[in-house]
Amino acid sequence: MRTVVHTRQGDPAQVLTVREDPDPPPSPGTGQVLVRLLVRPVHPGDLAGVEGLPGLPEQRPSEVRTPGVEGMGVVESVGPDVRALRPGRRVAVFPAPGTWADFVVVAADHVVPVPEGVSDETAALMLVNPLTLLMLYRALENALGEHEGPVLQTAAGSSIGRLVGAAAVRHGLPLINLVRDAAGARRMRDLYTTLPVVATGDADWREQVRHHTGGRPVRAVLDCVGGPLVQDLVTLLADGGTLITYGRLGSGTTALEELPLVQRGLTVRGVTVRHWTRRIPDERAQDVAFALDLAQHTPDLLEVAARYDLADVEAAVEHARRPGKSGTVVLTSRQPAGAGAGAAR
Ligand SMILES: NC(=O)c1ccc[n+]([C@@H]2O[C@H](COP(=O)([O-])OP(=O)(O)OC[C@H]3O[C@@H](n4cnc5c(N)ncnc54)[C@H](OP(=O)(O)O)[C@@H]3O)[C@@H](O)[C@H]2O)c1
Q1: Are 332 and 68 in contact (CB under 8 A)?
Q2: What is d(CA 214, CA 195) in angstroms, rounded to the nearest whole number?
Q3: Is the pTM here over 0.90, yes or no?
Q4: Are 77 and 105 in contact (CB under 8 A)?
Q5: Angle at the Cα of 45 (from 44 to 48), degrees rounded to 5?
Q6: pLDDT of 339
Q7: Do the beta carbons of residue 67 and residue 48 sit within 8 Å?
Q8: Protein residue with least CA distance to atom 17, ligand 1
Q9: C-alpha of residue 182 to centroid of ligand 1, in Å
Q10: Which atom of ligand 1 is nearest to the CA of 271?
Q11: How far is CA 313 from the centre of its chain?
């Protein structure tokens, strides 16, 4: 059994190692399932967890951590009271801390059976980002109230940004997409021909945004870049507008006190998929149905950028951070000889 571990926080390229453990995988307890993982994503949030982020628990000196919160695989065994899942079933898991390993033990209600026809790779990406999309969209609806927009999003070419773009096209949301350079803008225009795209590398990018809004101030911003860019985003916001922050791809910081929040009645709202489990079971079931529908009917929205064996985690991390990447890097484990054909789909 292989497990990616880190014993301290820091640059993932420096602190991650692959541990080979001769012991058998742990047994699932009551209400738990042991999953033999086949594919798991390398999300920016996984890397941020390795580096350490304000607001997240700091790693204790003796603590050994394994990154990863989602993935797909095959049920290996189930706890004594688990009836709905059987060994051999193809499943996706989230939240399942520690998926960068060959096996993970996860609560049975964090396990989603994968429908026929959904590929392993699509299944491995079908929960975190689609569920984040739903949370962002709810925050956006809340922020817009009776206004229809316009709305601005940063890092529009990211996996999440593309999901937001697709949702905007579908719902007629007046969305303006920010990317950081001309190459990113070209990729985004090819993907969504009807949505305006502006590269923040252009000196006049703020004017370009105003042009696209027809001079109307932006009602809400979806931002996952942060840092000094926030000052500009706030300048483009209407009085009473909302900055929805959900990531920190950029470097640097902006002090809250430097923003005219009080004077202009602005709202800053944080969104995290970590809070998704706080939704009641019926709501969670509806959200999972949405994610399954997306995986079945628009799998191209869950694009894989590249695949690496779990042992090549260092190369995978380097690729995940590479500019111009399209989609999500995944880490794979080989299916053992003689395992069911269903798992290989
Ligand atoms: N709050 C939550 O619960 C939650 C859940 C999921 C994701 N997220 C966040 O959402 C963001 C996107 O995640 P993802 O998985 O969609 O990412 P992704 O597919 O890896 O794409 C990230 C893209 O953002 C662009 N980018 C990177 N650094 C940037 C910078 N400094 N300034 C502007 N653009 C930059 C890059 O595109 P180019 O190289 O083409 O410019 C990069 O390919 C991340 O911040 C992630 O942490 C948050």
Answers
A1: no
A2: 14
A3: yes
A4: no
A5: 90
A6: 62
A7: no
A8: 158
A9: 17
A10: 1
A11: 18
